[in-house]
Amino acid sequence: MVGVFRINSMRSIWRTLDRRVLADIGLTCLAVFFIGLSYGAIAVTSGFPLWVPAAQSVLVLAGASEFLFVGIVAAGGSPIAAALAGLLVNSRHLPYGLALPPGVTGRGWGRLSGTHVMNDESVVFALAQPDPRRKRAAYWACGLGVLACWPGGAVIGGLIGSAVHDTGAFGLDAMFPAVILALIVKDLREVRMLRAALAAAAIALAATPFLPAGLPVLLALAAVLLLVRAPAASAQDGRQPEIARAGSSP
């Protein structure tokens, strides 16, 4: 029964999303796979056994916090401190959950698995769709794709980690943010969105020299206030002429 349900769900996703969205999701998952290669190689060359990146990639399924955990422990930090830092970085999922419409991550107990596949990419693709049905399909298509590609890349990267001494030389660390930027560049044509993005970038850049990795991105969420206040101000301005006309009527 579970197998039949999964097959029907995948068929529904393929019928709901157009080819362009599916192609974008596929390219994003491919990028995630290559970043997973880098993560697995870095973890193994830093002294971790292969099972550590393999287990984290499935159970944690959050690249930023996994990279942070490996970096802190490899530098001599406490695993407990590294885990707490990872939890702090993953707290960005709280506004993600608030931004998604109800039902996207599932209903009832199914929301547990839906929350597990929540990541930057699945949220971006979901929010970019025009209606709830497509939002849900894009969320699950990307989430399940990342669930397959991230652990797969981490394991393969760990296996070849002994042969890769400088993963940064391949530029794999820049591929992932480049894909995310490509997904949102169309929305940056809107002045209000562009201002918020520039403010977020300025906050993150200013905080990077002083805070651990991941925290500057959390601080950059303060730029979302520019998106919240602007519509309210414009709506208030739009009501002023109506109020004036109402006051002048007998």
Which key phrases capture this entry?
single chain, 250 residues, mainly alpha, 13 helices, 0% strand, disordered N terminus, disordered C terminus
Protein described:
It is built from 13 helices and no strands. With 250 residues, the chain is an all-alpha fold.
Brief characterization of the structure:
With 250 residues, this protein is an all-alpha fold.
The gyration radius over C-alpha positions equals 21 Å
Shape: globular
Identify low-pLDDT runs.
Answer: 1-7, 230-250
The span between the termini is 69 Å
Specify the number of helices. Answer: 13
Q: Kindly state the mean pLDDT as a whole number?
A: 78
Order of helices and strands: HHHHHHHHHHHHH
Strand content: under 5%
Helix content: over 70%
Described by strand count, sense and barrel closure, the largest sheet is: none
Structural class: mainly alpha
How many beta strands in the DSSP annotation?
A: 0
Topology:
Elements: H1 2-16, H2 19-45, H3 51-59, H4 63-74, H5 79-90, H6 93-99, H7 110-116, H8 120-127, H9 132-159, H10 172-184, H11 191-207, H12 215-220, H13 224-248
Helix pairs in contact: 1-9, 2-3, 2-4, 2-9, 2-10, 3-9, 4-5, 8-9, 11-13
